Amino acid sequence: MEQVLQQLINGISLGSIYALIALGYTMVYGIINLINFAHGDIYMIGAYVGYAVTRFLGLGFVPALLISMATCSILGILIEKVAYKPLRNASRISALITAIAVSLFLQYTMMYFVKPDTRTFPDVLSSNKISILGGKALLDTKNIYIILITIVLMLLLQYVVLKTKIGKAMRAVALDKDVAQLMGVDINRIISFTFAIGSALAGAAGVLVGVYYNTINPLMGTVPGLKAFVAAVLGGIGLIPGAVFGGFFLGMVETLVSAYGGSIFKDAVAFGILIIVLLIKPSGLLGKTVKEKV
Amino acid sequence: MTVMKKKLLGILSLALVLSLLAGCTSNSSSNNGDTIRVGLNYELSGGVATYGQGLTEGIELAVEEINKSGGVLGKEIELVKIDNKSEDTESANVSARLATRENVVALLGPATSGNTKAAIPAAMQNKIPLITGSATADDITVDSNGNVREYIFKTCFSDSFQGVIMAEFAVNDLGAKNAAILADSTSDYAKGLSKAFKETIEKYGGKILVEEAYQAKDTDFKAVLTNIKGANPEVLFVPGYYEEVGLIVRQARELGLDVPILGGDGYESPKFVEISGKEAANNVYYSNHYSPMDDAEEVVKFRESFKAKYNKEPDGFNALGYDMAYLLKDAIERAGEASPEKIKEALEATKDFKGVTGTITIDEYHNPIKSTTIIELIDGVPTFLKKLDPK
User: Fold this and answer.
1) Maximal C-alpha separation, chain A
2) Rounded average pLDDT over A179-190
3) Average pLDDT, chain B
4) DSSP assignment letter at B265
5) pLDDT tens per residue across span B41-56
6) DSSP A130-187
7) Do residues A209 and A20 lie in contact, with contact meaning Cβ atoms separated by under 8 Å?
8) pLDDT by residue (tens digit) across B288-314?
C-alpha cells in the first residue's frame, strides 16, 4: 500500500513534465494543424538557457525560469517565421518534413556549441523531503514545485485562450483561418503569439527537468518530445485539457508498468496504448468526434 | 614442367624475395642484439585517447627506470610506439605491422576491449605474445568456444570478476545477503557483472530479492527504485556507467532508499559526484584497479617517480601501464632470453608478481588473479577502503 502511494507521486511528477511539453504541441497543432517536431528541441534549448543563467550568471530558480521562457518564445517565433511561414499553404507533409529538419538542425547546432557531453545543473532549488503518513511515502519539495508550476501554467493558458481577446482570435483562427482573416484578425500575429506561448512552455519544462533530474544534454529533447506528442494525441490533439490529461495518464502508465516488473517494456506499453486509442477513438480520450465538412 | 609447378615456383621465388626485403628492413632498424624491441599499439589520438596516453605514460616511465638500472638481461628495452587512432581497423593494421615488420618480441596494448580484439589475429598468427592492461571484456583471452588464446594475456581483472568481488564484499564486509540488482539491459558490461554477482551471492546462501533493468540514457528511475525499496534489500548492486548510476544514486536517496549501493569500475569519474550530488554519494562502494590513496610500499614509490617525471598525480591507467611493462621485464628475465616463444611461456608461469595495481598471478585462462581495490564514496570523495585479495 505504501508503495502504491509512492508510485502515485512518481507518476504524477513524471506526468506533469509530459503535460507541460504536450501543451505546446497541442496549441500549435490546434491553430495551424502542424505537428511541430522541433518542440522537444526547444525544450532542450530552454534547459541550456536555464543552465547558463544559473551557472554563469548565478541567478536563482525563478529568474532562470522566466529568462528561459522568454528566450524560447523568441526562438519559437523565429523558427515559425523562417521555417514554417513560407510553407503555410504547402501540403502538410512538406511542413512535417521541415519540422523534422528543424529538430535535427537545433540538436546538432547545439551539439556543436555546447559539446555532446552531459552537463549537471546547479542545485538552485533546495530539496527537502516531506514524509507522508508517517514515513510511508516521501515527497520531495521539487515534486511539489513541478506539479504546481504545471498546474498554474495550464490554468493561465486556459484563461488566455478562453477569456481574453487574443484568445478569442486564436480560437477563431483555429476554427477557420480564412474567415478569421476576413473578420479582421491578423493571422500572422496570432500564429506568432501561439508559437511564442507554446515555446515558452517548453522552455519552462526544460528548466524544471534540468532542476529535477540534474542532467542535461543536447539530445535530451528527443524522447520526451515524442512522449509528449503521444500524450497530446492520447488526450485529443488540439485540446488543452486533453494534453494535460494525456500527460498525467502517460506518466502514470509508465510508472505503473515499471512498478509491476515491466521496466523494459514501459515504452512499448506507452506506444501500444497510443495505437489502441487511435484505433478506437482517433480524436483522443477527451476529443469530440467532429463531422468533417465535405 | 607443368603449369602448376611453374606457378608454385613463381610464388616461392616471390616469397623469397619478399622475405629478403623484410629481413633487410628489420635488420637495418635494429635486432643487432643491443636492444629488446617491444611494440606499443595504443589509442594516442581519437575517441579514447586519454586511455591510450595514460597507459603509454605508465609504460614509458617503467621502461625508463628499467633501462637506467641496467635493462633486462644486459640489454635495453626499446619501445616502438604506433598510434591506432582509437579505431578497430587501424588497430589491426598497427598490430600486423608491429608483428611482421618491426621485429618486436612482445606487443603491449591496445587499451579498449574492442581495439584489443582487432589486434589479436595478427599477434596469434605471428606467435607474438600480446599483453593488454585495460581490456576488461571476458572474451579477450578466451575465444567464444572457450579455448584459451595462446599468445594473449591480460593484466587487469575481467568484468565478471568484479561481480564476484563485489558480491563477496557485500556478504563478508557488509554482512548483507539479501540484494537487489538494477542493471543496464543494453550493455554487455552490466550483464557480465550482474550474472557473476548473482551467482556469487547465491553461492553464499544469499538471495536476489528483485532484479530490475533500465536503458542507457534513461533519466527517471523512481518507479523501479520504489519497487526495489518495497522489497527491502540490504544492498543494491548497480553495474553501469557513471552517467546513469549518478542519477540512480541521487533518486534512490531522494526516495529514502539508504542501503549501500555497489558497482564496478564504471563509477570512476569526477562526473559521478556532480550528477549525484555530494550528499547522496555516501555509502557507495565500487571495485577499481588502483587507488592513489593506497599506502602500500610499491604504490607510494610509483606515485613519487610518476610525479617527478610528469608533474601530476597518476591515475588508474598510468598504474596499469606501469605494471604491464614491469611484468614483461619480469617475464623476460625468467625466460632467460628475449624470444616471443620463451616470453609467452614465462608469462604463463607468472606467479605472485608484485605490481602497483595488485599482486598478479596468471591463471590457466591467461587472466590475472589479483587483488582488487574497493573504493568508498564519502561525501562524494573516492576514498580507498581496502584491498581484497582473491580466494
Assistant:
1) 62
2) 90
3) 87
4) G
5) 998 887 778 888 999 9
6) EEETTTTEEEEHHHHHHHHHHHHHHHHHHHHHHHSHHHHHHHHHHH-HHHHHHTT--H
7) no
8) 888 877 788 889 999 999 999 999 888
ipTM of this complex? 0.80
- pTM of the model as a whole: 0.76
- Beta carbons of A258 and B227 less than 8 Å apart: yes
Answer whether A123 sits within 8 Å of B185, measured CB to CB.
no
Q: Domain B160-288 belongs to what architecture?
A: 3-Layer(aba) Sandwich (3.40)
Burial of residue A126, with CB atoms counted within 10 A of its CB: 0-12 exposed, 13-18 middle, 19 or more buried: exposed
Task: For chain B, say whether A181 makes contact (Cβ under 8 Å).
Answer: no
A213 touches chain B (CB under 8 A): yes
- Residue B242 corresponds to which amino acid? Y
Amino acid, res. A32: I
Q: Which of A18, A212, A214, A222 to mutate to test the interface with B (most CBs of B within 10 A)?
A: A214
> Is A259 within 8 Å of B223 when comparing Cβ atoms?
yes
CB contact under 8 A, A6 and B255: yes
Q: What Rg, from alpha-carbon coordinates, does chain B have?
A: 23
Q: How many domains does chain A have?
A: 1
- B213–chain A Cβ distance below 8 A for any pair: yes
Q: Is A30 exposed, middle or buried (0-12, 13-18, 19+ CB in 10 A)?
A: buried
Identify any residues that bridge with B207 across adjacent strands, giving them in sequence order: B178
Q: Which of B18, B196, B36 is nearest to B104 (CA)?
A: B36
Largest CA distance in chain B: 87
If we measure between CA atoms, which residue out of A182, A48, A154 comes closest to residue A111?
A48
Interface touch B275/A215, C-beta < 8 Å: yes
Cα Rg for chain A, rounded, in angstroms? Answer: 19
pLDDT tens digit string along B23-35?
444 433 344 568 9
Smallest Cβ–Cβ distance between B277 and the set A2, A123, A263 belongs to A123
Of 1.10.1740.10, 3.40.50.2300, 3.30.830.10, 1.10.3720.10, the CATH number of B33-157+296-370 is: 3.40.50.2300
C-beta of residue B213 within 8 angstroms of C-beta of residue A263: yes
